[in-house]
């Protein structure tokens, strides 16, 4: 008797030091565009208390609500569970596990910037997230 295996859903982890800006935007955008085809997490090595308000505002402009999100601590288990680990240009120390794909997206830090300066960062993250999604789910329409 043959058992049909469900296709494995790839998991992506976005990492930034404070998990309050870039990694939160990337996770929300990938989760939105993937619509369940990819599992998405974000974390930071020194999580902030709250998400950057300008980031929340910039994402709200796209209809994505980050008000219920919060910065999360990076753990070895979180990295180990991921297929792709993306650091967000903040020089973060991330545990390295064999068989994982590691990328570093060099992006400006939105900390302390007004929403007008966060928008271009958000838009660049969105472009990269869409390209990553196309790689991870090539058969999706």
TrEMBL record:
Q: Mind listing the UniProt keywords for this protein, alphabetically?
A: Arsenical resistance
* GO BP annotations, alphabetical order: response to arsenic-containing substance
Residue ranges occupied by any Phosphotyrosine protein phosphatase I domain in the UniProt entry: 10-135
Q: Which residues form a coiled coil?
A: none
Entry-linked InterPro entries: Ptyr_pPase, Ptyr_pPase_sf
A Pfam family assignment: LMWPc
What this protein is called in its record is Arsenate reductase ArsC
Q: Which organism is it from?
A: Actinomadura decatromicini
């Amino acid at each position: 008797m043959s058992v049909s295996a469900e296709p494995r859903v790839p998991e992506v982890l976005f990492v930034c030091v404070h998990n309050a800006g870039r990694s939160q935007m990337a996770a929300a955008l990938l989760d939105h565009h993937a619509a369940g085809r990819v599992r998405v997490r974000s974390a930071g090595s020194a999580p902030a208390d709250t998400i950057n308000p300008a980031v929340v505002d910039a994402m709200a402009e796209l209809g994505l609500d980050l008000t219920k999100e919060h910065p999360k601590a990076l753990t070895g288990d979180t990295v180990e569970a991921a297929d792709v680990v993306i650091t967000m240009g903040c020089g973060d120390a991330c545990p390295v596990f064999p068989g994982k794909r590691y990328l570093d997206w060099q992006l400006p830090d939105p900390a302390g910037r007004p929403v007008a300066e966060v928008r271009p960062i958000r838009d660049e993250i969105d472009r990269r997230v869409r390209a990553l999604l196309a790689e991870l789910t090539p058969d999706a329409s």
